[in-house]
């Protein structure tokens, strides 16, 4: 999907108007941000907003997160173990200390594996850049 | 108040241009004349109008001309301001406005960097395919014992080009990464600016509400003096008013300490009557056009 985030009153209002008028291509709305369908129309709506409001519109492309492809097993295991901890007040850093679980600094240093493919939900289209 | 239209002169607190002139001017040039010391040209004639009167106060912007479409809230807030009332949030509002004016947001243009990456990626892919194709041809020729000199040198050239394209693609990606970092920082500044814009808007709303409420008792009383005005419909605050909207506007004009004349366009409902009828309803000097 396309994540559109606005950074000014004008852009925010414009996003609201777009979401109202084109709810077919709008997957979700969150106030100053929204998720559009990753189709030509969704891209068109997002780019229109950027043409009108420049840097006040941020557009990101999202993929459903596949935790099995993106991170190693120890990250998933750490998340599961932490969610299951005995004491709710324990911060993760303390929880992980002295265990095999990776500490937060180590985690911050790790990059995710690149996503295998873009939006699963998009229909296959002709690659635009080959047309040059 | 003195009004001169062309070479006709009028004096008084209630001037009725509609009944005194064959063609009364429209409201806009009269308002312009009230706001200025200079003559104002009248449309479709070669005459001008001069209005000699007290300077208009800020409330005049909102309620100095009837009919008007100011909301009750904004009309009463303007009246309160012109009476000298200051909202308790006025200082905070001024401070936020200053902060907002000082806010500067760097412009980061990423489109060029993105386009460079897209082109470099495409060029690299095409060259990779070309190298693969040429390699295939070369292999096929070798198997046939055919001459390989030309394809070999083509392949060599293509491989060199591919290497350059790869370097360019990496450089373009790095440049885009750096630009994205700058854009992220710039967005933090934009977000701060948006928060200030919202804070200013909220404070302005709060100020308007506070100011309007401060004159609400006077407004309720003023309703008794205007046609269709019913003090019983006023409620405790502007949001609770459920009486006649035009009566509300007339009462708001009464509340405003207007020294400059109100311009009443004939046909403004309700039709109160002559300029002096209007002057006594509005408790103001009036020019009727």
Q: Quick summary of this structure?
A:
Chain A has helices spanning 9-21, 40-53, 67-70, 73-83, 92-96, 104-109; strands at residues 2-6, 26-29, 33-36, 57-61. Chain A is an alpha+beta fold and 132 residues long. The two termini of chain A are 25 Å apart.
CA-based shape of chain B: elongated
The termini of chain B sit apart by 15 Å
Topology as H/E string of chain A?
EHEEHEHHHH
Strand-and-helix sequence of chain B, N→C?
A: EEEHHEEHEHHHHHHEHE
Structural class of chain B: alpha/beta
**In angstroms, what is the radius of gyration of chain B?**
36 Å
Helix fraction of chain B, binned, reads: 55-70%
Distance between the termini of chain A: 25 Å
Largest sheet properties of chain B? 4 strands, antiparallel
Give helix % range of chain A.
40-55%
Give the DSSP E fraction of chain B (strand runs of 2 or more residues).
Answer: 5-15%
Please state the oligomeric state of the protein chains shown: heterodimer
Number of helices of chain A: 6
Task: Give the total of beta strands of chain B.
Answer: 8
Description:
Chain A is of the alpha+beta class and 132 residues long. Chain A is 40% helix and 14% strand. Chain A contains six helices and four strands, in the order βαββαβαααα. Chain A has a four-stranded antiparallel β-sheet with strand order 2-3-1-4. In chain A, helix 1 runs antiparallel to helix 2. The longest helix of chain A is centred in the middle third of the chain and has 14 residues, at 40-53. Chain A is elongated and about 55 Å long. The two termini of chain A are 25 Å apart. Chain B has 289 residues and is α/β, with parallel strands linked by helices. Helices cover 58% and strands 9% of the residues of chain B. In chain B, strands 2-1-5-4 form a four-stranded antiparallel β-sheet, with helices on one face. The mean pLDDT of chain B is 92. The chains are: A alpha+beta (132), B alpha/beta (289). Chain A binds chain B through residues 7-9, 12, 32, 54-56, 58, 129-130, 132, and chain B through 105, 107-109, 118-119, 121-122, 183, 186-187, 190-191, 193-194, 197-198, 201.
